[in-house]
Amino acid sequence: MRSLxxxxxxxxxxxxxxxVLRCAHRQSPGGGPDDKxxxxxxxxxxxxxxxxxxxxSKITVTFSEWxxxxxxxxxxxFPSTPIKVRVVGRRLEIKPLHRLNDSTTxxxxxxxxxxxxxxxxxxxxxxLMFSTGPSLDSGKISGCVVDPAKxxxxxxxxxxxxxxQPNDSGFCGPPDYLSQTDSSGNFSFExxxxxxxxxxxxxxxNNDTRLQEGSEELYTPVESTVVIGNxxxxxxxxxxxxxxxxxxxxSVTTIDNRTIAGNWKRxxxxxxxxAAPKFRLERDDSVSPPVNVGYRQAPASARxxxxxxxxxxxxxxxxxxxxxxIFDTAAVIDTLRIDGAARADTSPPSLITxxxxxxxxxxxxxxxxxxxxxxxxxxLLMADTLGDSLLLTGDTVVTDTSRFSVSRSLLPGRSYRxxxxxxxxxxxxxxxxxxxxxxxxxxxxxxxxxxxxxxxVSLSGGISRxxxxxxxxxxxxxxxxxxxxxxxxxxxxxxxxxIPAAKGLIGxxxxxxxxxRPDIGRLLxxxxxxxxxxxxxxxxxxxxWDVEGVEPGPCDPCERRKEETTADSSGINERKE
Length: 577
Known about the structure:
Elements (H helix, E strand, L loop, with lengths): L1 H6 L2 H17 L14 E5 L13 E5 L11 E4 L4 E6 L2 E6 L8 E6 L15 E6 L7 E7 L10 E6 L15 E4 L5 E7 L2 E8 L15 E3 L5 E3 L5 E8 L7 E8 L2 E6 L13 E6 L7 E7 L5 E6 L7 E8 L8 E8 L11 E5 L9 E12 L3 E5 L4 E6 L4 E8 L8 E7 L3 E3 L13 E8 L6 E8 L9 E7 L6 E4 L4 E8 L1 E9 L10 E2 L9 E10 L4 E5 L27
Parallel strand pairs: 8-15, 15-36, 31-38
Antiparallel strand pairs: 1-2, 2-5, 3-6, 4-5, 6-7, 8-11, 9-10, 9-12, 12-13, 12-14, 13-15, 16-17, 17-20, 18-19, 18-21, 19-20, 21-22, 23-24, 24-27, 24-29, 25-26, 25-28, 26-27, 28-30, 31-34, 32-33, 32-35, 35-37
């Protein structure tokens, strides 16, 4: 064997040794404790914050350990520049595919997609700034992505410079700046061009540094644009949505000779389609005039109903509808086939079931599920056997699930009755509710409340350091999965009365539309998200107790978790002297 090695030409022998050593270095070492530490930046060329960098420069970033070659996808150069990336041992070599622009500040971004040979991602995102001119841009911005669901993944932060006018796909293109938060949601940019920008954050699921409409979770600030100047600007981003797909009908079914039920592919959205759709029916086998159709949309639902002005028969029909979204220059027209029905609807609707399940809390949301769409036309009352009665308020629109709330809290350990009379509601054909016997009683719904020994008398507290904002509300979310309870803010304090005893979390949100729940925003058309924070401390609402002086925390929604380090957010260890 030794003679064989000695007989090899020196060039071939050197090549074999290089291959062996290279493979040996790439192999994950065996034995010893598991390596859980991600690679750290040791040096960069050019150095951080360099100026007058030649426009034909290549970029090299050297890390503390060998890199996984297949993990180079999360490397980008901004302003958006095509690059070729290569991993060579501990080095990341970046070659721009054309000369850099003169007098331009560049940002090299490396996200946590980059990993070492043990699949440990870099410990924090890398942001390397340098300029091909004599100075760096001076704009600054920082902030935090606030996620009430406590997802500690690291979203990308993207900025798009205005006055560029976004369209339904513009935000899916390359941004002007890109970075990534640390694991606590914080981010910062320096050396940016000053001016106005669109700002958003998203989870880059496919690691392509582009926002994918409708499939990647999104966050926006409460302003549609932000102005970046020389002084630091701090922004908070909250959950939002980005989905501009055209609305269309998923299915339609004939209920009777004057009623058709249908479903949109998703809940009807008046922001995307401000005008109601238009429907008409045409027979397939004749030249009869079109049948006019009335449209009724179920609230906050994909369900809708159509009422014809003349009776249908069992022939085949074409259902033609047109609608226009804010992104359409003209109305979109579509056609579906539907079979008519010769029979009239003479069957009265009936109550299938009622919710919630027993026992109910003292402020229940009552739901009545009907056999067919119903609209209620009279006031409903509920009363217990001791004469305590109260008014129900809720849906009076066409729906197959009516929702009601109580005008005040119920009493614990009581049994309440709601008597539904036949005249309380009708279906779309005008049939009153089905009578359950020879009287005019349609149904009797019984609601039993939880016992007094399962009720927390009150839960109160607050956070004096919060900024005073009009419209703030508080919520208590039991860990057991019970429904969430809300109350109004009073000088940065909250008080929940007579709620089920449970351990849970406290949150606060700005209820701008006064619908008693935190709403996410949307990117196009822009709707501001309602700022919403869930605090980390677990709070107990104790049975039969007044729990007072609760101060949930931490107060700062962007406060780093205890295990986070306070390392510099640039991810670069070197410093320019």
